[in-house]
Design brief:
It contains 12 helices and 8 strands. The chain is α/β, with parallel strands linked by helices and 264 residues long. Helix 8 (163-180) packs across helix 9. Pathway: Amino-acid biosynthesis; L-proline biosynthesis; L-proline from L-glutamate 5-semialdehyde: step 1/1.
Amino acid sequence: MRIAILGSGKIGYAILKGLKENDIAEYLIGTGRSEATLNKIKNLGVEATSDNNYAVRNADYIIISVKPQHFMSLIKTIDPESWKEKTVISVMAGIKISTIKKLIEAREIYRAMPNINALIGKSTTAIAEGRNESVDKIFKSIGSTYWIQEDLLDVWTALIGSGPAFVAELVDAFVLGAVNCGMPRELAYNTVLDMIKSTSDMLSKSNSHPLDLRDNVTTPAGTTIKGLLVMESEGIKAGIIKTIEASYKRSIDLGKDMQNNLIS
């Protein structure tokens, strides 16, 4: 595969890194605007350029990884003919495939939604829609992939895109709870991370409902039920449900604003 990444910020750079480390591409090029970004790409042993048109012309798979508000500026730098017969994958939030098709003429167009864990090769990435083994291979270089309908990308953004921030907030709450009870912060932090990893593994391997694990830990009049009582009275579960819902609605609103700005 001959692959170009247009925009080598956090996600674009993570994809470049994953592709390079896994030797996925026959040819790989990344674009950037600043010298710092271009040097970062070169330090991966990847060709770097500020010429987006050159990158598109020389690749078969094009990943658009610029901020959505910069998309129109990007396509103005590229000859419309350069897109033809290319497979394009957008990782821009909010811009629908139908809108991209109105602006560029490519062979195939997909949307992908990685998350910040791509930086360590552990992204959980949604791809919409259809199925393309080469596209799947590209994103498997930075983690796991799930092919979904495009209309699920807003809730995916809330759950999986924003999810690492929500989990980090919960981790900090666990740690502060332990510190409040006298445990050194470093010990609390490391053990909380271990506990979350092993709990995730157990849930994954057991194929059972999370409440089964909860009930296995909970004994009559024990420590767990007292803690669960506080979680219930404080509305922790309802708060998390509302958190996902609020993030989901914001994703929809941002997408509508972006669509309106692009087609106006």
